[in-house]
Predict the structure.
Amino acid sequence: MIGWLAKKILPQTAVDTLKCIRKQVKNCRTLAFEYGQYRTIRRWSCLDRSGAPLPWYTYPAIEYLSSLDFTGKRVFEYGCGNSTLWWESMAAEVYAVEDSPEWYRKISALKSARGAFYLETEQAHYVGKIRETGQRFDVVVIDGKHRLDCSLIAGDQLAENGMIVLDNADWNLEAARNLRERFDLVQVDFHGFGPINDYTWTTSLFLSRRFDFGSRGQRPARSIGGING
């Protein structure tokens, strides 16, 4: 009704402007409520629209990772948070190392026993913890402190068909180069908005050349905010 009335009483340029504004408002609503970003800003916590934990990665990276089947997979995280809880909902085992006693206490109270959780405040112990586990990991996440140093050894403990997640790759160009060149991994960049922040950034995946993770369902899945074709 409003659209019809606007066409009758407003010049065409004004009608076109209203259409543009309406589309832009819809985009904002999709980001704020369908992705749940408004909730994350208000609570300063990474959550989806239903209140479940999310990693602090870009939304495009989260959507892609959510499409993969991590059943039976082992994950190692540099840096903990809601991402640790999210990975636990997806994978068989999650190992994580944290340098902040406050975050360690907070997440260890929520984390299950599937894997291990370490507090290491000294840089050398923090970076080297992945080797101390004596395990190889299907997924290694670099999303905490000392990312450059972590990038130098992360690939040594990576399963032959696994992947490494480097968040804020656009701020850590040398770390990204190490993962590409030192370990011969294929870099795939996911740029965009994500939880909490009012700017875009890049979460990059570094895939083994034998990467072969299955999918959780039909791919591509319908994207958040998408419409049926």
